[in-house]
Amino acid sequence: MINIIVGPPGTGKTTELLNICQQKKEQGVPWERIGFFSFSKKAAYEAKDRARHKFQASRDDLTHFRTLHSFAFRHLAVKEDNLMKQKHWKELSSKVGFNLVFNDNDDSVYTNSNHQFINLINKARLKDISLAEEVRLYPDPINMVKLDYLNRVINKYKKVNELYDYTDMIVDYTTDTVSTQFDVLFIDEAQDMPRVQYNMVDKLISNSKEVYIAGDDDQAIFRWSGADVDKFISLQGTVKVLDKSYRCPRRVFRLANNIITKIRNRRPKVWQPKEDEGKIYRIPHLRHIDLSSGNWLILGRTKKIRNEMIEEILLEQGYWYGRGEHRPVSTTVLGAIDVWKKLKFGNTVTLTEVKTLYNKIKTKVGIKHGHKTMKVENDKQLFSLQQLKDHHGLLVDGEWWDVLSSLTPFEITYLRRLEKIGEDITAEPRIRVSTIHQAKGGECENVIVLLDLGKIVYRSYLKNPDDEHRVFYVAVTRAKNNLYIVEAQKQQGYRMYGDERMHDDL
Q1: Could you tell me which CATH number the domain at 251-323+428-484 has?
Q2: pTM assigned to the model
Q3: Residue 93 and residue 407: Cα distance in Å, rounded?
């Protein structure tokens, strides 16, 4: 029996799955007979971590809490050395004369390349269609001779070197005569799976007694990379819609519904917002928003928009922010400042910390020649400021901006402003920036959404608006309280306000 759980934004889809998992454990189902698989590493890790705390389970207990490609990797006993990596793509580049830079984020099957041929080949495989079929769907002319040649070379290279990519492992598991059997099978984030993963899931379902598939077609934002949202919409089974959001306030809920009801093919669903009214602001430019306090999530449609229309303005205005693990100033600079402050307060520091400090001080300007590498007999030794001056070539003293001579004028001005306004640059940033796709699953009290699309996305939007409706539905539903809509700075923007009734909420 297949149970379909549809979870609109903030309704606790993963919580629902874990509650069902708890019921099955109480009924005596052992961990090795429970499979819990998700589309991305991020979602799989979150589910595993929450299950570990909820059930007081060990990591070994939760061995089947993972991504589908990770499960296939273990089942097929593939070795790490047999995985296709960046070095292999570089070697292939030299063989074929194409620059096959491969952006492998190791988070899902949707790795992508800077070369359109690689993306076409991968997309055809994910959709389980021929390369010729995928080319017919592509909007621009393609040199089929070169494309076929590259496809043959890649396949031969992988075969000769016994290499696998994610899709290879999914396909090989699906065609393998042996399959793991589960009493209970959970599939999360199913709306983002491509056809090739659904083939694997079909095999898992055929060997499972009870199945729970969770997702939300309204939040399916990876169709451009091969996700088969129509497959999720057409799934047959007992459907349960989680109907109460614990994230979205009323005004955001109404705007989100106004966006998503424009989609032609979707699962009908009724859900309710939380009790708070919330606020929506329509803003002409990001510069007009005061970001000096509170927590913020700022979303751009593409990396280019994120970098040029968000991050550049934040730097210009002197705000500290984070993009994943990235920070505006490198951790080595922050580390050097921290070490210098310790020394100025009279504390001692380790050899590693001294090397971090010296790395940001120019030789002959702040350190005597021959001392920068800090060659000492005892690597456990601690150092004071006076010891560094007397015995280890330190020539300078004063404030950190006077001492760290390798810093750029921008870094000094930017960091001094942050210190002046009391921003804690050692803590998790109050302001986070992201593309909409990377923010999926996230939430924040204050969310800013830029409506700019960029030329390529705008052209696709005009042909098939449903994909962008889903993307901006995901964007606005990240807001827990205040939502700021920043007007498109160019003509290529998403049309958020098609319904005049929405103006009362702005």
Answers
A1: 3.40.50.300
A2: 0.89
A3: 36
Q: State residue 176 phi and psi, 5-degree precision.
A: -70, 145
| CATH code for the structural domain at 1-74+172-241 | 3.40.50.300
Residue found by looking up tokens 């015995």 in the block: 391
Distance, CA of 222 to CA of 194 (rounded, Å):
9
What pLDDT, on the 0 to 100 scale, is given for residue 437? 93
Q: How high is the pLDDT of residue 39?
A: 82
Other Cβ atoms less than 10 A from the Cβ of 131: the count is 18
* Cα 84 versus chain centre, distance: 21
Q: With contact defined as beta carbons under 8 Å apart, do 9 and 256 qualify?
A: yes
d(CA 205, CA 247): 32
CA dist 487 → 32, 299, 315, 468, 497 (Å) = 51, 13, 20, 16, 11
CA atoms lying within 13 Å on the CB side of residue 366: 20
With residue 212 as reference, give the H or E element that holds it: strand 208-215
Are the C-beta atoms of 9 and 447 separated by less than 8 Å?
Answer: no
Residues of the chain with pLDDT under 70: 101-114, 498-506
Please give the full DSSP string across 358-417, using - where no structure is assigned.
HTTS-BTTTB-TT-TT---S-TT--B-HHHHHHHS-B---SSHHHH-TTS-HHHHHHHHH
In CATH terms, are 1-74+172-241 and 251-323+428-484 the same topology?
yes
- The values of phi and psi at residue 343, to 5°, are -65, -40
Dihedral sign for Cα 493, 494, 498, 502, please.
negative
Per the CB < 8 A criterion, the answer to whether 430 and 296 are in contact is yes
Residue 106 DSSP one-character state: S
What is d(CA 228, CA 222) in angstroms, rounded to the nearest whole number?
Answer: 9
pLDDT, tens digit, 9 for 90 and up, residues 461-486: 999 899 999 999 999 999 999 999 99
What local confidence, expressed as pLDDT, does residue 106 receive? 44
Contact, 185 vs 159, CB < 8 A?
A: no
* Confidence (pLDDT) at 110: 52
Reference 250, options 271, 221, 227; nearest CA is 271
CA distance 408 to 152: 48
Domain spans of the chain, in order of start: 1-74+172-241, 78-162, 251-323+428-484, 329-419
